[in-house]
Structure prediction request, 82 residues.
Amino acid sequence: MTEPSLVAQGLELMAFGMGTVFAFLTILVFITSFMSKLVTKLTPEEVAAPAPAAAGPQTQGVDPQLLKVLSAAVKEHRARQK
Prediction:
């Protein structure tokens, strides 16, 4: 009887390891898909909330006093940045 070479032992170990990983991942996929179906079946469907009414276009412009205040604030901010 001859002892198997190191290369043969390495190939055998690699095949065994890859087979083990493949089997584990296959089982994991089946368990995950089963759990997904189970959760979907057991949880109630969410009721869709009615869509909010679309706001129509604003007919009013910006308040002139507010525009003046905002302009002054922007000018003050830019002056402080320099």
